[in-house]
Fold:
Amino acid sequence: MAANAILFFLLFATLMSVDTQASQPNCPPAKCGHGAPDIRFPFRLKGQQPQHCGQPGFELSCKENTTMIHFPSYGDLVVKSISYHMKKLDLLDPRNCVHGVFLNLNLSLSPFQYYYVVKNYKYINCSARLPTSSFNEIPCLSTGSRDHHIYTVKSSLGVPFSCREVKTIAIPFAYSPYLSDNSFGLGLTWNNLSGANTTQKGIMSKSGFLNIALQDAGLL
Structure:
């Protein structure tokens, strides 16, 4: 029986050692500059942290001490803050056109979704200005020409005669001239990651192995 107890102890110590080593990869937090958000799993900083330190789609980069994230459907956005507890990524558009982001950003190609509740809105392009009492033109999407005026309207509304529909898309809010902060609504979140499931499966596998070993040792 003493030999069996020694075998159990050796097996347990070996498994604990493997878990401890696996839970401490060489991934210290990184940041792009003073006051910039800490970058750690599931994010990783390109050029400073190995690939195993983050998940695909969570790569960040530094540009003049500013933290950036790249979306192929739109381009680079500034990372204002990261809340790992709330799983929230606050972004800024360097072009100062949040509705340009809403119109072009395709989150289905990324691990993210909007943090805030979204509703379907219709972007319309009009050859003439609509009444300002009912419609708010989006300045950053409208050119200075007379026949290019962009608006957001509820998806249930019909398209005015002088307009054509550009896209209907689920976004956090319609354009309003009273929302001057271009970061408002530009918050993203992410779901549970496959890495957590993989870790859990690894623990289950080790537990199963330990049970088999204990049975063979006559301790179960």
